[in-house]
Design brief:
Blueprint: H1 19-29, E1 34-35, H2 47-58, H3 74-87, E2 95-100, H4 103-114, E3 120-124, H5 129-137, E4 141-145, H6 153-159, E5 164-170, H7 182-195, E6 198-202, E7 228-233, E8 246-251, H8 255-265, H9 271-311, E9 317-319, E10 327-333, H10 338-349, E11 351-352, E12 354-355, E13 367-373, H11 379-399
Parallel strand pairs: 1-11, 3-4, 3-5, 5-6, 6-7
Antiparallel strand pairs: 2-8, 7-8, 9-10, 10-13, 12-13
Length: 401
């Protein structure tokens, strides 16, 4: 008995290891490597963010030192309400608002509230790895559904069981960059309503649309507020990943349960980050737009590089079209599992990208997938990173691995 060591709960074995941490460890071994892995942008927040925080600190505003309301401070909630109604057209009848430490935390809280042990959440493939992890942590079962890159509502309907609690959509999509047409999101939302499910709509990349298909939140649909969770983040368009601020519109009937999770985990959103968030929202979409539009040039660079690689004889292709976010999902010859592929890329060729395994898409039939993120690199570094990537792919193809 005395030789026994404390161990983690058995359910933790079913939770995937965080892939970004694995990439980080490899990059530490290879400092000269370039990363197409983590989903961040290169720009800093609006200037008003730092100014607002500096003013609050200079005024020794003691509210920064104290707990605040569990949902968030009213000035920020009001700014979020205006942004969602006037800017995004959401129907908030039946919804309330919650500020969290990033939209990842909001999803985790929703999973905790929805899932009794064994309850199921449907995740159209490819899914976002943190979604599957959060569902497992809550005792639920993530159910990957092969519904197509544009999720087919009929295939999702066929996957519903008596244990189903929610369907998750991500548009613009992480990892594919695909923008789901508004009519498809509306059909999935109606499916959820008919079956008594929650539609969790992850819209962290709502401002990143580069093609002809628009993004329209299913939360815009009349009467959707009672069964729709709409998740948003300041990490992407406002360049505030490290400030950890997100917000959600959630069905009002879930707010009591969500308060239990929020109070236990966070108590309240950090006061200083809320000041920063309020200043960011005051800068508004007009500040974000030129930064997002500039990413369109990096997207074109990615598309051209893939086309050139194909012309050079490499059997590579982008699934998509990658018209949103700042991702592309590359298919290429590969039979390595995710861990081995990461080592091949980083240690062998000085470039990092995320393997398809992380998104529920392991190699099949000698073809693998990589998520490529172009949000952090300028044109010269992106050119170099893609050159290294295609060298790594060519080496795999030549070796038959």
């Amino acid at each position: 008995m005395g030789d026994a060591y404390p161990r983690a709960a058995e359910r933790m074995a079913a939770v995937a290891d965080p892939v970004i941490a694995q990439v980080g460890a490899l990059l530490h071994q290879c400092p000269q490597a370039l990363s197409l892995a983590q989903g961040m942008v290169a720009w800093a927040p609006p200037p008003g963010v730092g100014q607002a925080v500096a003013v609050a600190l200079a005024q020794t505003d003691r509210r920064l030192d104290r707990y605040g309301p569990v949902w968030g401070e009213e000035p920020l909630l009001e700014a979020v309400r205006r942004e969602l109604i006037e800017g995004r057209g959401l129907d908030l009848e039946g919804s309330d608002l919650l500020v969290t430490a990033g939209s990842n935390m909001a999803f985790n809280a929703i999973a905790q509230v929805l899932c009794d042990p064994g309850d199921e959440v449907l995740l159209p493939l490819p899914f976002y790895f943190n979604h599957a992890m959060a569902i497992r942590l809550a005792g639920g079962v993530p159910v990957p559904v092969e519904a197509g890159l544009v999720a087919d509502p009929d295939r999702l309907a066929a996957a519903i069981t008596p244990r189903s609690r929610a369907i998750v959509t991500i548009s613009p999509n992480n990892p594919s960059g695909l923008v789901t047409p508004p009519q498809v999101l509306a059909a999935i939302n109606g499916l959820c309503h008919r079956h008594g499910l929650v539609h969790v709509s992850d819209e962290a990349y709502a401002d990143f649309v580069h093609g002809s298909v628009p993004h329209a939140s299913p939360g815009r649909l009349p009467g959707s507020g009672g069964h729709t969770v709409s998740l948003y983040s300041l990490s992407k368009a406002y360049g505030m990943a490290g400030w950890r601020v997100g917000y959600a519109a959630v069905p009002r009937q879930l707010m009591g349960a969500l308060a239990k999770v929020q109070d236990t985990v966070l108590i309240c959103p950090p006061q200083v980050s809320q000041r920063a968030a309020l200043a960011a929202l005051e800068a508004g979409p007009a500040w974000c737009r030129p930064h997002v539009e500039a990413l369109g040039q990096r997207r074109r660079q990615l598309l051209d590089a893939v086309a050139a690689a194909r012309s050079g004889g490499l059997a590579v292709e982008l699934l998509g079209p990658p018209d949103g976010a700042f991702y592309g999902l590359l298919r290429f010859p590969c039979s390595l599992d995710g861990a081995a592929l990461l080592r091949h890329l980083v240690l062998g060729h000085g470039v990092a990208a995320l393997p398809g395994d992380s998104f529920g898409l392991p190699p099949v039939g000698g073809r693998g997938l990589l998520r490529l993120s172009y949000g952090m690199l300028g044109a010269p570094d992106l050119e170099e990173a893609l050159g290294r990537l295609f060298q790594a792919v060519a080496a795999l193809e030549a070796s038959g691995r």
